[in-house]
Amino acid sequence: MQNFINYKNSKIAYSDVGKGSAIVLLHGFLENSTMWKDIVFELSKRNRVICIDLLGHGNTECIGYVHSMDDMAEAVKEVLNSLRIRRSIFIGHSMGGYVALAFAEKYLKNVKGLCLLNSTAQADNEERKELRKRACDMAQKNHEPLIKMSITNLFSENKRLELIEEIEQVKNEALKVSVRGYIAANEGMRLRGNKEVVLKSIEKRLIVLGKKDPVLNYESIIDEAKRTNTPLVELPNGHMSYLEDKDETIKILRAFVK
């Protein structure tokens, strides 16, 4: 069941399940809290699990025309304040990892640990920034085809036939993101800075990387893990490890939060 708080004249949606040490799950771009359902089921057996719909996603409204990662982190902080949760382990998928790093930069004492799930502490390179600009232009003209194509491309080729129903569900959830929400988040990601120093400052940390991830550069993430002295676990498929390698991902996350 979702709950809501008011934040800057808008609604922020979240769920709060289970008892124990707090775990905060932050979804990626064009996703929402529903992506975590299988993981929540497992982690909430021993922990209190909070899932938050980030700005412009799921049932959370937009607050502006650019949603910086700092803006999203502040919304997360408001939810946790309302629940009187002081310290949490964060698991962030893709954009959710960027938000978790922005949160840690501001509120390090409130972060017990961070798992970057198919995510990175690096900023976009110039090529990626240009792609985001073009995607924002396309979103205004061809919103639905752009989203459908973007979601399909997140999966490794060998999983696209195996996970037809799951991919359709991800697309349906992604299409709930408005053009405004799409552009605001994409701009926020484009403008974010490098957070490797922040990642290194978090005592308990982990990177989970898909070997065939089409979004993240494999060698670049390997180097990042070395530079930041962060443990890294590799999985065989693409950007959507929570679906493509579901059982293994759950096993990894359970061990991380233990």
UniProtKB/TrEMBL annotation:
Q: What is this protein called?
A: Alpha/beta hydrolase
PANTHER family hit by this protein = MONOACYLGLYCEROL LIPASE (PTHR43798)
Asked if Ribosomal protein is a keyword of the record, the answer is no
Question: Which GO molecular-function terms appear in the entry?
Answer: hydrolase activity
Keyword S-adenosyl-L-methionine found? no
What are the UniProt keywords, alphabetically? Hydrolase
Q: Which residues form the AB hydrolase-1 domain?
A: 22-245
Q: Which organism is it from?
A: Tenacibaculum pelagium
